[in-house]
């Protein structure tokens, strides 16, 4: 993967901002790099805690959908929720189920089986609902593209409310213009509709569901017992669905991180315990890489209903058993993912590594892991990546992950006829094709693409070229005020060049971690904790050779000189507090720099 490091050069009076908000000027520079400009916006970025967000009535069909739901509840009609099987879907389903049940609804839920049903509501789910006497379907985190299912529901005389946040399907006419297609539901609540006036378009499905419930309760005259109710679920879904951590999303996630350790949800509390998260600060990383994957694993390897059942559990002992079981499912998922990724890399290295778009068929890969493997390949090669595996009846199922500058949803829409089914957005997609169309799709996507060398170069944006001698506890504490970090609010990244590696100590059961001692030109030293040390060692061998690498590993003088992009941190060990850095990536130092 090609990389290009650049240092932000955005201007402002950083000392003035620092004085105004009592933060280090370096932190003021980071805020400017996030395009937060002006005292009012900076204050909002640092201090806003208003959970109310924008006027929810600006959402197209919001009041229409709520009034329909209110009427159905009062009539005692049977209502069924249908969600997606990922974290966002599970959280959306929980919010709707718990809140509608409290409002007096005759409520049930359904979640598609990833293997049997694929993504979203389908005709089988509609048939079952009709057989069960369901009057009204409400979707969450899906439904905007479910034409056959919703058309069938309407044929049966059912009422359908769609709540979603995905892109609206469209056709391209002879003039190259998009013609959007809207499902024939009784109310369609999706902020991606062109005619929707809601000003912030980057909320997840759980947030749409949360806003639906808030508005429904308002119209029904029901009190909102706790301002923080459901915020943990909204925050978790926002991070795991990789929504922008800006605007109201940032406020929801920040609040969720503050309150989750004291959550009243018995199942969520049990999952914190099972993952050893009860005795330390919870971060957005824990949402995205610890808790979220546990819920996702249920939908991948068993049923997402297992994850929803945990959230609905009211018995503490049972919840602890269920949470531990879910953690074990996720451990199994990790092992399967590693095996699948290795096989996929072998395939790419064998014949595809020169392709600007990676379209990879990995036989026997568990279909639920295709998206994760696609993400791993994208990270390794920095290419738009589609990973397929075996489905049923001579079909292939897959998932895609994209890069900046390549709108995957639009590109797949250009060859819609090759798919049995597909959906998604700019950066990710899920799809099914006939096996005979695999090679045709690969060639079509390669022929249609116009990605330049610059497009295929990963951009590393350095906030400040900062010597580690500048790091202090105050600086790190000030940087913590910028959390939560994630998509759209990247963790601050600093860099220093021409560093010597004094020694490297391998750690962990499988020597998977490493603690480096780095020294700058002035003789200042700092410890660096690297959790991907094998990547570093392989890079050193490639840049400086086996002999110099061995000297480094043995603590001997060596000729290794590197640039390091890093995050500063504080480590507390045996009662001692000291500064360290967490390397993000490395470069070979050259004199030209």
Annotation field: number of helices: 20
How does CATH name the architecture of the domain at 56-228?
Alpha-Beta Complex
Oligomeric state of the chains in view: single chain
| Main sheet specs | 5 strands, parallel
- CATH structural class of the domain at 56-228: Alpha Beta
Shape: globular
For the largest beta sheet, what order do the strands appear in spatially?
A: 3-2-4-5-8
End-to-end gap: 21 Å
Q: Could you say what the CATH topology of the domain at 56-228 is called?
A: inorganic pyrophosphatase (n-terminal core)
Provide the structure class: alpha/beta
How much helix, percentage-wise, in residues?
Answer: 40-55%
What is the average of the pLDDT values? 94
How many β-strands, per DSSP?
20
Runs in which pLDDT lies below 50 for 5 or more consecutive residues are: none
Strand content: 15-25%
Mind sketching the topology for me?
Blueprint: E1 2-7, H1 14-21, H2 25-33, H3 39-47, H4 62-75, E2 78-83, H5 87-102, E3 106-110, H6 123-131, E4 136-140, H7 147-155, E5 159-164, E6 170-172, E7 178-180, E8 187-190, H8 205-220, H9 231-240, H10 247-259, H11 266-274, H12 284-301, H13 304-312, H14 316-352, E9 358-361, H15 370-381, E10 385-390, E11 395-401, H16 408-413, E12 419-424, E13 428-434, H17 438-448, E14 457-462, E15 464-465, H18 473-480, E16 494-507, E17 513-519, E18 525-530, H19 533-544, H20 546-553, E19 561-573, E20 576-588
Parallel strand pairs: 1-14, 2-3, 2-4, 4-5, 5-8, 9-10, 15-16, 18-20
Antiparallel strand pairs: 6-7, 10-11, 11-13, 12-13, 16-17, 16-19, 17-18, 19-20
């Amino acid at each position: 993967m090609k990389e290009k490091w650049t240092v932000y050069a955005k201007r402002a009076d950083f000392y003035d901002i620092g004085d105004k908000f009592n933060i280090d000027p370096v932190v003021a520079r980071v805020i400017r790099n996030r395009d937060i400009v002006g005292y009012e916006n900076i204050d909002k970025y640092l201090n806003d805690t208003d959970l109310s967000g924008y006027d929810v009535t600006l959402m197209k069909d919001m009041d229409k959908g709520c009034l329909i739901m209110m009427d159905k509840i009062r009539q005692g009609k049977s209502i069924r929720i249908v969600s997606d099987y990922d974290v966002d879907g599970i959280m959306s389903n929980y919010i709707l189920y718990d809140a509608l049940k409290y409002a007096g609804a005759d409520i049930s839920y359904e979640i598609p089986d990833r293997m049997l049903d694929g993504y979203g509501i389908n005709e089988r789910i509609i048939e079952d609902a009709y057989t069960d006497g369901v009057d009204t379907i409400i979707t969450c985190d899906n439904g905007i593209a479910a034409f056959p299912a919703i058309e069938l529901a309407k044929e049966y005389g059912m009422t359908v409310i769609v709540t979603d946040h995905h892109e609206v399907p469209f056709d391209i006419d002879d003039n190259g213009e998009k013609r959007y297609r809207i499902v024939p539901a009784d109310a369609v609540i999706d902020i991606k509709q062109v005619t929707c006036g809601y000003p912030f378009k980057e909320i997840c499905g759980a947030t749409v569901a949360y806003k639906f419930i808030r508005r429904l309760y308002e119209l029904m005259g029901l009190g909102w017992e706790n301002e923080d109710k459901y915020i943990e679920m909204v925050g978790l879904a926002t991070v795991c669905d990789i929504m922008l951590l800006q605007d109201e999303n940032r406020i929801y996630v920040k609040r969720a991180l503050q309150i989750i350790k004291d959550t009243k949800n018995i199942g969520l509390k049990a999952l914190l315990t099972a993952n050893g998260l009860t005795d330390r600060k919870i971060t957005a990383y824990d949402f995205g890489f610890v808790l979220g994957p546990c819920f996702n694993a249920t939908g991948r390897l068993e049923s997402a209903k297992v994850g929803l059942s945990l959230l609905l559990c009211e018995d503490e002992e049972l919840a602890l058993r269920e949470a531990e079981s879910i953690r074990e499912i996720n451990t199994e998922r990790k092992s399967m993912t590693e095996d699948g990724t290795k096989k996929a890399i072998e395939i790419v290295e064998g014949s595809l590594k020169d392709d600007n778009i990676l379209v990879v068929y990995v036989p026997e890969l568990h279909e639920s892991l295709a998206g994760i493997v696609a993400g791993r390949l994208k990270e390794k090669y920095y290419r738009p990546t589609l990973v397929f595996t075996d489905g049923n009846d001579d079909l292939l199922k897959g998932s895609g992950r994209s890069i900046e500058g390549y709108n995957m949803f639009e590109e797949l829409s250009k060859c819609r006829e090759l798919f049995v089914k597909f959906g998604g957005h700019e950066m990710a997609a899920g799809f099914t094709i006939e096996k005979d169309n695999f090679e045709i799709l690969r060639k079509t996507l390669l022929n249609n693409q116009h990605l330049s060398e610059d497009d295929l170069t990963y951009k590393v944006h350095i906030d400040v070229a900062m010597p580690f001698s500048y790091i202090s506890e105050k600086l790190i504490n000030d940087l913590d005020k910028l959390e939560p970090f994630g998509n759209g609010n990247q963790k601050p990244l600093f860099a220093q060049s021409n560093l010597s590696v004094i020694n490297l100590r391998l750690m962990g059961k499988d020597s998977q971690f490493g603690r480096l001692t780095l020294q700058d030109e002035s003789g200042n030293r700092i410890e660096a904790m690297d959790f991907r040390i094998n990547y570093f060692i392989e890079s050193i061998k490639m840049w400086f050779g086996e002999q110099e690498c061995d000297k480094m590993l043995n603590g001997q003088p060596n000729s290794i000189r590197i640039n390091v992009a890093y995050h500063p941190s504080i480590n507390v060990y045996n009662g001692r507090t000291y500064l360290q850095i967490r390397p993000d990536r490395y470069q070979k130092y050259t004199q030209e720099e």
